[in-house]
Fold:
Amino acid sequence: MSTQTPDNPDSAEALLESSDPAASKEYIENYLQEKQAELEALADDTDPVDRARLQLDVAEALIGVGRSDEAWELARFAFDVFLGKECWQEAVESCDVLYQSEQPASLLALGMGVWLAVTYPVAPSLTVNMLSYIIDETPGKADGAAVAAVSAHYIADIRTEGKEHDSLTFLTKEMLARVALEHSDVKDQEALSMWMEKLQLLDPDIFLPKLALVIGAIVPNEQWWFDRDELRNRIPD
Structure:
């Protein structure tokens, strides 16, 4: 899936990032054929979630071979299955693939994926990754990138422990520093602290509602694929 690391030899995404593009694409083609065969071989009574997981694997591989429109269709179907079954992690992974497919509604998928990733306790690394896409999509001088960056750091801080906390918060601190540099030419810790205070990035009770506004700018009210109020009622205690 999208959250696999380059250390995992079964990751289609990892192979695409290797030093030999030709070999990577050949691997992806083989991986795609393998996953498509597994999908076609599923029994009619296969658990819908198991089928959707395979569909998402196929969708990611399709992006790797330039068949993004087909990837969108599979990932969009998988998303609905995961959402209905409360598989929040997989639903966000589906949004990740939908965003990467670069289709007309990919930004909508990004916004909804970020909402789910922040609202539900999915893997913090995936949440940070989704928020990094918002930074990429936001003009450097816009406050939205700063809100996304500080939200990523907050999520990394509260959802991780030990070595994972150290590595992920190191990454999010770097993200925040890069955004501050581009936004306001911030170059040192003192200036960073002043910048964060000026933009009200020190209190999650302030910057998380700002993140909701950023997401709202990406996904208009009438274009959500699900009822957010209804999903909030499913949040685990």
User: Anything to note?
Assistant: The chain has two domains: 1-103, 109-226. The two ends are 28 Å apart (CA to CA).
